[in-house]
Write a structure and sequence with these properties.
By secondary structure, this protein is an all-alpha fold. It is built from 6 helices and no strands. Helix 3 runs antiparallel to helix 4 and helix 4 runs antiparallel to helix 5. The mean pLDDT is 96.
């Protein structure tokens, strides 16, 4: 069983698990399936907006698609969440990603 199938099997048992959803989206990115990954990250963040690590990867996927305005907005939203959660490392990564686009 490959990683994607394994993650989907785990998600069938615990569909709201943010870690598993994030991991699946990352595996989809590895396969160049950015659109599916974007959808999954967006669903994850709609359900669990404090899952701060997903903002960075969603923004990067949007950048690859050429949607820089939306990527910047995602980075900025992630920065708000990271600041509120006092996740300084995540905040700095998101800020750098946003600065690179602005």
């Amino acid at each position: 069983m490959n990683r994607i199938d394994l993650l989907k099997a785990y998600l069938a048992k615990t569909p709201d698990d943010s870690f598993l959803r994030h991991a699946l989206a990352l595996e989809l990115i590895k396969l160049k399936e950015d659109e599916k990954a974007i959808d999954l990250f967006e669903q994850l963040l709609a359900d669990d907006p404090d899952y701060v690590g997903s903002y960075y990867h969603l923004g990067r996927a949007l950048e690859r698609r050429g949607d820089t305005d939306r990527a910047v907005a995602v980075y900025q939203k992630g920065m708000e969440v990271a600041r509120r959660l006092q996740e300084d490392h995540a905040y700095r990564e998101l800020q750098q990603a946003a600065d690179d686009l602005i």
